[in-house]
């Protein structure tokens, strides 16, 4: 999700690589990986964000996700 961030690219890439490693180690298929990551996002929103802000934060996340998905034919 291309946005300016207060976190370094290195920190983001390190965490991403670790998450990918866990999913690959488990041989998780794409649908299971998406389900687990979605559940993680839901859990973070429900436990770390004030109730009054959760829907707005979820919408912002969903919008950022939508804008980062490519329309090319690569698979």
UniProtKB/TrEMBL annotation:
Record-linked InterPro entries: UPF0352, YejL_sf
Q: What top-level branch of life does the organism fall under?
A: Bacteria
Q: Which family does it belong to?
A: Belongs to the UPF0352 family.
Annotated protein name in UniProt: UPF0352 protein EM595_2461
């Amino acid at each position: 999700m291309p946005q300016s961030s207060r976190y370094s690219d290195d920190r983001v890439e390190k965490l991403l690589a670790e998450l990918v490693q866990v999913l690959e180690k488990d041989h998780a298929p794409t649908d299971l990986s998406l389900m687990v990551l979605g559940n993680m996002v839901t859990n973070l929103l429900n436990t770390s964000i004030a109730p009054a802000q959760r829907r707005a934060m979820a919408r912002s996340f969903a919008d950022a996700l939508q804008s980062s998905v490519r329309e090319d034919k690569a698979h």
